[in-house]
């Protein structure tokens, strides 16, 4: 397997976002590549292009990775970090935004660096000069893991919203039963009917009921 490193050190000069290619029926997935070594960065970008990615942003400065990711919202970020902890804040900034998966490249593949990269939320970890044969699987696995994590997070968030809505409606039903003498089924139907008539969500109507009868329990609802 041939390593991607052409064999000469880079100057470290930042390379800023480049223009995207014209849109096609199937837009290419996009990538951001950050590496101090200009030659390695160019080789990684070239390999990603061969894999079908469009490299929309490059930089030699890890500190620029967060801004590039937020501005370009790529499908993958390949970020090279130096041994030690100097670049860990840059990695943490990118992963905290949860915009794209991050594959880290590093000279240090020891246990401490691996643990730091893992704890920072990276989705892949490769030696600083990966081969094309190892880069593609790492990138594809990172993209798939990130998509699965995003799906699970969305499901958890939706479940939490449903639970909060159910609690809100149950409280509103109780207040309608107490203050208007409705049965539980009638109270629930009243909330549903009112929501339809007012073109609001049942949670919003329930919040209005609570605000009317028990302002101390008002919650924001949409």
What would you say this structure looks like, in words?
With 222 residues, the chain is of the alpha/beta class. It folds into 2 domains: 102 residues, 3-Layer(aba) Sandwich (Rossmann fold), CATH 3.40.50.2300; 63 residues, Arc Repressor Mutant, subunit A (Orthogonal Bundle), CATH 1.10.10.10. It is built from 7 helices and 5 strands; from the N terminus they run E-H-E-H-E-H-E-H-E-H-H-H. A 5-stranded parallel β-sheet has the order 2-1-3-4-5, sandwiched between helices. Helix 1 links the parallel strand 1 and strand 2. It starts with 28 loop residues before the first strand and ends in a 9-residue tail after the last helix. The C terminus is likely disordered.
